[in-house]
Amino acid sequence: MRFSSCLAAGALLVPGAASASSMVIGTGLARMCYEAADTDRATAATLDVCTRALTDEPLMLDDQVATFVNRGIIRTRLNDWNGALADYNQAIKLNPATAEAYLNKGSLVLRQMHDWQQARSLFDAALQHRTSHPEIAYYGRAVSSELAGDYAGAMADYQKASELAPNWEQPKKELARFSVRKRG
């Protein structure tokens, strides 16, 4: 049981895990929402900017979807888990191929709900839809696999995350805990 607790705590420390923002083209409130999500500025004021973008601006579908993802990121950072989940779900409902919604939802589900099965399927969906942050998806999938007892799968995914982001130390730290032994 102690081992699982350490892993769950490690998942909380994933830098950028809940920050795979979605680009918004142009200017205006939706762009300001994107910039706030992308630069880790989560305040009640930036949350209001995102909400106003969704209610007051005529947004193209892609910008609307991206704004839901970005507002979800800001809500995650403000510890509004239910609001963040609702935003990620709305983004997925509007466009089921929204990779960053799956990625951010997977990170939230793993860290806050400790549901490694659901998180794993969300990370798989993020990879399937070509997330712009595959290293985070592989890392999250590795944590999920390790919690499931799939150590070989976890090791492979930590390795992939490390290859994709060679300057990111966390996957390397996780890999250092593994050793491979020959059978017999």
Automatic annotation (TrEMBL):
Keyword terms of this UniProt record: Repeat, Signal, TPR repeat
Residues spanning the membrane: none
Signal peptide stretch: 1-20
Report the PANTHER family cross-referenced here: TETRATRICOPEPTIDE REPEAT PROTEIN 6, UDP-N-ACETYLGLUCOSAMINE--PEPTIDE N-ACETYLGLUCOSAMINYLTRANSFERASE SPINDLY-RELATED
Q: Which residues form a coiled coil?
A: none
Any keyword Repeat? yes
Name it: Tetratricopeptide repeat protein
Superkingdom classification of source: Bacteria
